[in-house]
Write a structure and sequence with these properties.
Layout lengths: L1 H9 L2 E4 L12 H6 L3 H9 L7 H11 L4 E4 L6 H13 L9 E4 L3 H14 L7 E3 L3 H7 L10 E4 L1 H8 L13 E4 L2 H4 L7 H11 L6 E6 L4 H10 L4 E5 L5
Parallel strand pairs: 2-7, 2-8, 3-5, 3-6, 4-5, 6-7
Antiparallel strand pairs: 1-8
Helix pairs in contact: 4-5, 5-6, 8-10
The structure holds adenosine-5'-diphosphate and magnesium ion (MG).
Length: 245
Amino acid sequence: QEKINHLRNVNRISVTGSHVPKLILEFSELKTEYQVSEKLLNNMTSSGYKYPTPIQMQAIPIMLEGRQVLACAPTGSGKTAAFLLPIIHSLQGPQKKGFRAVILSPTRELAKQTYRECLRLSDGCDFRIHIINKANQALTKYGPSSSQKFDILITTPKRLVFLLNQDPPAISLNNVEWLIVDEADKLFEEGIRGFKQQLDEITRSCTNTNLRRGMFSATNTPAVSKWCRRNMKGLVTVTVGQRNA
Ligand code: ADP
Ligand code: MG
C-alpha cells in the first residue's frame, strides 16, 4: 500500500473513494491482471501508446473493476483512451442488444475525434460504432424495428435527448452498461443550460440495473464533483496534477 501511494505521488495522482484499485505502470499488466486481449493491447501500441499516461494508469483499472469514476486530468493527457480501453474490453465483442456504451461529448467535433479513436483502438473487434450525424436520419435508424446491431454510441447530449423525446422513443438505451460524460466540466458550465436535466433524462432511459457512469473532465470543479458524489454510488475520484495530501 505504501508503495502504491508512493507511485501515485510521483505521478501526481490523487484518489478518493473506498478500495481504490491499484494503478498500472505498463499496459502489459492489463493482460495478467484483467485478461485484456493481446489484440486490444496491440491496438494501443499501433496508436503509439507505449506507456500509460497518469490518468490511464489509474482510471483504466478502476473502470475495469466496474467502478464508477470521476476522472480529472489536464487537456491532452490521454483521457479518451482511458475510457475507451475499458469499454472496448468490457463489451467483449459485437452483440445485437442495441447500444451497450454511450459516450456524451459537448460538441460534434469532439464526438468525431472520439469516434476516430474508438475505431482505431477497437480495430479487429467488429463493433458497430455510431455517431449521430443527422438527428432526422437517426429517427428511423435506431428505432424499435431496427436490427439492434449497435454497440457503441458517440453523440452530443442534445441529439440523444431529441431521439429519446420522440413518441415512441426513437432509440432504446435499455441495455447500456457504460455511460461516459466526456469534458464533464464543459457540459456543466453555466452557459450550457439544462445539461443536468438532459443527463437525468438520459440516465433515466438507461434502465439496465448494471449501468455504470464515468465522468471525464479537465478540471475537478465543485459543480461536477458535487453532482458525482450525490449521484454515483461507490464513486472513485482520480485527479492528476496535484499532490496527494
Ligand atoms: P484529453 O482527452 O485528456 O485532452 P486525448 O485523449 O485527446 O487527451 O489525448 C491527447 C493526445 O495524446 C492524443 O493525440 C492521443 O493520441 C495521445 N495519447 C493518448 N494516450 C497516450 C499514451 N499512452 N501515449 C502516448 N500518447 C497518447
Ligand atoms: Mg478529451
